[in-house]
Amino acid sequence: MAEPTTIPDYPLSQDQIDEYRRNGVIRIEGIIPPDVLDVMRSAIERAVAEESAVVPDKPATGTQATYEKIFNQKVNLWQRHSDVATFALSRALGRVAARLEGRDMRIWHDQALFKEPMKGNNKTPWHQDAVYWPHADRWRQTTIWIALRDATPQNGCMAFVEGTQALGPLEPVDLADPQDLFDAAPHLRPVKPVPLPLKAGSATFHNGLTFHYAGPNKSDATREAFAIIYMPDDTRFDGSPHMVTDGQGFAPGQILDGALFPAVS
Ligand SMILES: O=C(O)CCC(=O)C(=O)O
């Protein structure tokens, strides 16, 4: 029998769309059914293991190098592993992203985020995402962060400060030597962040400007997540350097489209 690889359409309600637009984040339980999740997790684990076995020609630099201290992170697996592309390019997920943001969507990139156990204090500092991206407009990007295995407060589930997407893009936090993101918004210091633990197969969508954080992995197993990052289909390149666009021939002002950025909604 063929393996189940189709993520079914998710019946998103207007209440969920309203919640996402108000809070800049929403948890969606069971968006990946268990039988599909088994196949998806195996494909992603295999791809991460295969790529982790290869010693890179050049050490990672910049944000990439810093991320690698926090997790085993592999970017754009969909481009190198067709069995991962089946899931990363899912139109069912793309349509949820599009309805939440009210825009047609393309893939910006994907990333496996495997946070290994007890690797120092490997917390993910408070940050916004879209401020690192070479996009002329940074308001309507969204990320689905899928728990491939349960994500808990113990192993580094994500936490969010709801409503912070409305602040717009702030100065990027240096992830290697993080300044305090709340210095830019001191009135938010008393606000309690909302941790969102996830059962395997559940996910959050968060806007690219929503403040978020993840604790260190204090468990004895790897925290395995897969993120797919979407951008509106008319997103223009702003010319700044980024590992996804470097050397790809895009000119400032050009729409990020074509084979590298498939439309998915
Ligand atoms: O997985 C993590 O710990 C952080 C991920 C993150 O910041 C993101 O997906 O935007």
How would you describe this structure to a colleague?
A six-stranded antiparallel β-sheet has the order 1-8-5-10-3-2, with helices on both faces. The model has no long low-confidence stretch (mean pLDDT 93). It has five helices and ten strands; from the N terminus they run αβααβααββββββββ. Helix content is 21%, strand content 20%. It has 265 residues and is of the alpha+beta class. The protein has a single domain, classed as Jelly Rolls. It is globular, with a radius of gyration of 17 Å. Bound molecules: 2-oxoglutaric acid. 2-oxoglutaric acid (AKG) binds next to strand 3, strand 5, strand 9 and strand 10.
Identify the notable features of this structure and list them briefly:
single chain; 265 residues; alpha+beta; Jelly Rolls; 6-stranded antiparallel β-sheet; 4-stranded antiparallel β-sheet; binds 2-oxoglutaric acid
Judging from the principal axes of the Cα atoms, what is the shape? globular
Main pleated sheet: 6 strands, antiparallel
Contiguous helical run count: 5
Going across the biggest sheet, name each strand in turn: 1-8-5-10-3-2
Strand segment count = 10
| Overall number of domains | 1
Q: Give the integer mean of the pLDDT values.
A: 93
CATH class reads Mainly Beta
Portion of residues within helices: 10-25%
Distance between the termini: 29 Å
CATH superfamily, by name, is q2cbj1_9rhob like domain
> In sequence order, what are the helices and strands, one letter per element?
HEHHEHHEEEEEEEE
The assigned structural class equals alpha+beta
What is the alpha-carbon Rg in Å? 17 Å
